[in-house]
User: What shape does this take?
Amino acid sequence: MKAEIRKIAVFVEETHREAGQVIAPATRKAVAVAVIRNPFAGRYVEDLSPLMEIGAELGGLLGERAVAALGIAPGEVESYGKAAMVGEDGELEHAAAILHPKLGAPLRKAVEKGAALVPSSKKMGAPGQVLDVPLGHKDAAYVRSHFDGVELRLNDSPRAGEIMVAVAVTDSGRPLARVGGLEAGDAKGEDGLR
Amino acid sequence: MPEVIIRKLASQYEEIFHEFGPPPARPYRRAAMLAVIENPYAGRYEAEIQPFIDDLRPLGLEMARRLVAIMGGADQVEGYGKGALIGAGGELEHGALWHAPGGYAMREVIGGSKAIVPSAKKVGGVGARLDVPITHINAAYVRSHFDSMEVGLEDAPRAGEMLLALVMSSGARVHSRSGGLEAWQIKGEDGLR
Assistant: This one.
């Protein structure tokens, strides 16, 4: 099953100053979101594999759109995350079917490598509701400077029979990261953790 | 003259393929460019605020250029709008400083549009949303192009800041069918029809 996309939106943020300190180069995040028809809205369906295929399609599409919005090469992506918000006629499990089984592999292709788990969040929501996409370093989940998140919302989505699916990428960590832990430069990036 | 101190630049871009009706040949697109800057007049009443208009012009041009790039070129732009969210330490009037630099920057970058740039402004807290109106770039009465785009950032505007916005759109609403002056009927001389 192909995703029936009603809308794609892309948000980019650059932080040039934080707490009076100049951030140079600016830290940057991009998040791409697709609003799709939920083929299983309003009924219980046991087999969610069509949604898993939609997840695979959107992982590549949204990953590429987010990377393109930053204007960087895939290998320059430092952290990533994914999230979904299901409209009220759907089921939380629909978000899980899109996000977890198959979205990751094409997303990793779009960001080159990606040894680490893609952090995720999911919820049910109404049009205009906020979706917070968690962010973590793409090759080493313990890199503390890259734990972050990005908020998105669309005033008209998700309608009751829709699902919003989002992929976020960055080319940097937090603007003034200074709480220690594993540094990006020290990560091996082999086991996805350190 | 006060320097323009930018904390954040952000963009929003939407491609709308349909809204439960027949999809048009090309999706309807709209985009916003946002800047979060320090409000040099926050926290006090200042009588002379107009010098900041000129200070904002380079920022306006930079934002308009980026916005046109997001839209895919000046020939892709058929509608526009602008807005300002003033942090709680400021005054509505501070947002009015954005009219000239924001509007003329878009007109310059698009290449001589005729119609007034519609606008919205308000004072708001962190996370406030602003609905920025959109109308046709050459004829304000073109009904199919009346639209708006909601903009905002979760961490702005802080009390001493302003969030400035420019918005552009690619054409008619996705299922426009409410009549009125159509884009192909305009003369494009007086900016109205």
Remarks:
- The mean pLDDT of chain A is 96.
- Chain A is about 20% helix and 35% strand.
